[in-house]
Amino acid sequence: MRLPDSVTGSFLVVLGTAAAYGGWLLPPVPGQPVGPNVFPLVIGIGLALCGLAIVFGIGHTFEEAEELIPLEDGQVAAAAPPQGRFYGLRALLPPALLLFYVVAADRLGFIITAAIMVYVTSTALGAKWKLALPLAALAPFAIHLIFGKLLRVPLPAGLLPTPW
Predict the structure, then answer these.
(1) Between these two residues, 28 and 103, which has the higher pLDDT value?
(2) Within a 13 Å sphere around the CA of 55, how many CA atoms are in the beta-carbon half?
(3) What is the DSSP string of 76-127?
(4) pTM (predicted TM-score)
């Protein structure tokens, strides 16, 4: 049974609101700008906003139609599902990238490891290298500025010098 988007989105709004409210109730740690209350608050707000986007159909412009193949007698048949040598292995990509990060982050550093992960993920999702390469170069620096500089989360430096 497939649930309508409005039900799924409403559930995400309720879940996100509950998480944000729970984070709001947690006491902040004195003297620290980021305490245990910030993460569930931010994640809950983001989840609720994504749920609202689903409910109101923001960014959803079409239903994905099944690809049909015309036959000789005027009939149509459904196209075969995508095949390929590595098509089924895409499900292994997230755990493989997580394992790669755990093993390589201390040695290579956050910036290099994250750049490799962003490039591999974006190309696996179908992005051309002209988009994947700049994204892989800019995304780790943006993440570093947010988490390393703004929130003061220690990120492994690895091969790169840390003054930047």
Answers:
(1) 103
(2) 13
(3) EEEPPPP--SSGGGGGGHHHHHHHHHHHHHHHH-HHHHHHHHHHHHHHHTT-
(4) 0.51
